């Protein structure tokens, strides 16, 4: 296996408190802290571990988003990725368009493996990996909790309702990562400095001839309703009476 391609996404930092736009068209991220999607970070870590184990020679990361997404790519480069690519656009790109762009990149880069997070924490679609595998016509393994390379095949363990399932995939293949796959490394300051000198190319969706026009319409995004305060009861019988009065028992 020579090359691993890792798509990553810039999302609102998981520690930030999201706020809804006044026109209810989405989440307002202006001035908010952004970071790499946690599942994508796990995918980068797993690709680097495969490289360090001698199963791959190069790790390439790619992102689709605004110019600020370069910060996300630099983080992946600081972790140890070899080079990066940004498909720059200020538009919101839906999963199908993302999959089409990644398919074009994969046909250009010719990786042996594409490994990406199972979902992004902003929209939780969990679609891109499956769509990408279908477009490429490659075998896929989703929700990976363990990955290893042996005898020119990829062995992927995934959690299912009945326990653990291990798939043996020929290469090239697409794998999506679960939270239990690994614990991503921290970026040391020297590696952050080195990342600034690594290759990061920028292009646009039009370079690949892909239409990223939206096909879905968001009717409204609203914050959840506030929770009503609870009440105290003195006895269990009073609790049962209140539940009966509310029609809950």
Summarize the structure.
This protein is of the alpha/beta class. The chain has helices spanning 38-52, 69-79, 95-109, 128-136, 189-195, 236-245; strands spanning 3-8, 10-12, 34-36, 58-65, 83-88, 113-117, 140-150, 153-160, 163-170, 173-177, 200-203. The chain is built from six helices and eleven strands.
Largest sheet: 9 strands, mixed
Number of helices: 6
Give, in order, the helices and strands.
Answer: EEEHEHEHEHEEEEHEH
CATH topology: Rossmann fold
Q: In CATH, what is the class?
A: Alpha Beta
How would you portray this structure in words?
The chain is α/β, with parallel strands linked by helices and 249 residues long. It has a single domain, classed as HUPs (Rossmann fold, 3-Layer(aba) Sandwich), CATH 3.40.50.620. Helices cover 27% and strands 27% of the residues. It is built from 6 helices and 11 strands. It has a 9-stranded mixed sheet with strand order 9-8-7-10-6-1-4-5-11, sandwiched between helices. A hairpin with a 2-residue loop joins strand 8 and strand 9. The longest helix is centred in the N-terminal third of the chain and has 15 residues, at 38-52. It starts with a strand and ends with a helix. The mean pLDDT is 91. Pfam families: ETF.
List strands and helices in order, with pairings.
Layout: E1 3-8, E2 10-12, E3 34-36, H1 38-52, E4 58-65, H2 69-79, E5 83-88, H3 95-109, E6 113-117, H4 128-136, E7 140-150, E8 153-160, E9 163-170, E10 173-177, H5 189-195, E11 200-203, H6 236-245
Parallel strand pairs: 1-4, 1-6, 4-5, 5-11, 6-10, 7-10
Antiparallel strand pairs: 2-3, 7-8, 8-9
Helix pairs in contact: 2-5, 3-4
Cofactor: AMP
Function: The electron transfer flavoprotein serves as a specific electron acceptor for other dehydrogenases. It transfers the electrons to the main respiratory chain via ETF-ubiquinone oxidoreductase (ETF dehydrogenase).
Subunit structure: Heterodimer of an alpha and a beta subunit.
